[in-house]
Amino acid sequence: MKKFTPEFWLQRLIHWSLIFSFTSWLASCNSDNILIGPNSLNSRYTEEQPALSGNGRFLAFISNRNGSHQLLVYDLAEQRFVSTPGLNRPDTIAESPSLSYTGRYIAYITSDQGRPVVALYDRATQLSQILTPAYRGWVRNPSISPDGRYVVFETASRGQWDIEVLDRGPNLELDIPNGATVGAPPN
């Protein structure tokens, strides 16, 4: 018959305490610690290509939650998603979002008849429009000015990547903070 010596008992205790500690550590590393819910910024799905509005309140990003590839807008101040009807169309992919100062305007890449185009979504009117329907080449990486008047993007219409600046014109409602003055456009 074997006797239990204090050293053997101590080794056994250390062994089991190490196993318990390691198991606890592994359990604490799972993704259950991430706040996930209908109003949560994080999810168990891929989120990428974040863009922040100029005032720092709104965040636009591409997500694979809800079973589809979509562009989402999140209000950081209220910690909730912003409704954007008409932005995510079925059978299209949105990429590379860019926000104006208050997040009213969102410039992004989408597809039109199988090729990428630069589109603009106006959160006030809830309408989306294609800004580059006549471009023969590929486009990518749009960025909108803080006031929403200018959209810049890369285009390969000349066989190399070039920068294009699109002026949406002086007759649009600018995205400026309340009370801000607007100067004359540069010549």
From TrEMBL:
PANTHER family in the cross-refs: PROTEIN TOLB HOMOLOG, SLR0505 PROTEIN
Protein family: Belongs to the TolB family.
Chain ranges passing through the membrane: none
Source taxon at top rank: Bacteria
Pfam families listed in its UniProt record: PD40
Source organism of this protein record: Amazonocrinis nigriterrae CENA67
Name of the protein this chain belongs to: TolB family protein
